[in-house]
Design brief:
This protein is mainly alpha-helical. It is built from eight helices and four strands; from the N terminus they run βαααβαβαααβα.
Length: about 220
C-alpha cells in the first residue's frame, strides 16, 4: 500500500489520490465501526471525516479526535497496520434461571424473603394492643425480644407449597410461579421433587400444613 503525500481529513490537504487511499483502508474498518461503506471517489466529505473520527475514537482511544490523518502520524500507522476495533468485552453471564428446590436453594435464597420483627408492621387494632402489652411487660422489668411479627408473603408461599409437594397434594409442575422467586419444584422425577420439597419443610420446621393466607402474613 503506497503512503499518502499529505494530510487527509478535516482541515487537510486532501489530494484526490491520498483521499482514495484512506477511503480504501477505512472501508476495511467501517463495518466494525458501525458505519456504511465509503465511496472510494477521492473526494473528502462528511462520511469520510466521520469514519476517521470514529476510527480515532474506537481504535486509538482518542477522546477528542481531530478527524485528520497525517503522513507518518499515529492514525496513518494504525490504519496501514490494520489495527481494528478491539473485541468487545465478553457479555455478562445471563442471570441464572430457576433452580431446583431443596435445602441448597433455601440456604442461598433465604435472605431474599425475610420476616418482620417490627410491632409497627402489625395490622391495627392488634398493633396498638401488642405495643401496649409489650410496653407494660418492659415497664414491669421484663426483657422482651420479638422474633417475628409478620411473615413474608413469598416465604408463606414457599412454606405452603413445600408441604403440598412433599406430601403429594400438589404436582411439582403445578405449583404457581411467584414473580421474583426463581425456584423449580419439578426435578424431572417425582421422588426427587418430593425429597427437595421435604428438605425445605424440614428447614422451615413445619409440623402442620401451613396456610397460604393467614393473619401471620
Amino acid at each position: 500500500m503506497p503512503g499518502i503525500s499529505a494530510s487527509v481529513g478535516k482541515g487537510g490537504v486532501n489530494a484526490k489520490g491520498d483521499v482514495t487511499t484512506v477511503q480504501h483502508l477505512l472501508n476495511a474498518q467501517v463495518r466494525a465501526l458501525g458505519l456504511p461503506p465509503l465511496d472510494e471517489d477521492g473526494r473528502i466529505g462528511d462520511n469520510t471525516i466521520d469514519a476517521i473520527v470514529r476510527y480515532q475514537q474506537r481504535v486509538l482511544g482518542i477522546a477528542s479526535p481531530d478527524g485528520r490523518i497525517d503522513p507518518a502520524g499515529g492514525t496513518w500507522k494504525a490504519l496501514v497496520a490494520g489495527r481494528t476495533v478491539a473485541a468487545p468485552p465478553p457479555a455478562a453471564p445471563a442471570a441464572p434461571g430457576p433452580q431446583l428446590s431443596g435445602a441448597a436453594w433455601w440456604h442461598a435464597n433465604e435472605g431474599h424473603y425475610p420476616n418482620s420483627a417490627r410491632l409497627e408492621d402489625l395490622a391495627p387494632p392488634f398493633r396498638q394492643k401488642a405495643v401496649r402489652f409489650v410496653g407494660a411487660l418492659r415497664d414491669a422489668g421484663a426483657q422482651v425480644e420479638v422474633s417475628a411479627t409478620l411473615r413474608n408473603r413469598t416465604r408463606a408461599h414457599l412454606m405452603h407449597y413445600s408441604w403440598k409437594v412433599a406430601h403429594g397434594a400438589v404436582a411439582p409442575a403445578a405449583v404457581p410461579a411467584v414473580p421474583g422467586c426463581a425456584i423449580r419444584w419439578d426435578h424431572g422425577d417425582l421422588d426427587r421433587s418430593k425429597r427437595g420439597a421435604q428438605e425445605m419443610v424440614d428447614l422451615f420446621g413445619i409440623v402442620y400444613e401451613p396456610a397460604l393466607t393467614s393473619l401471620h402474613i
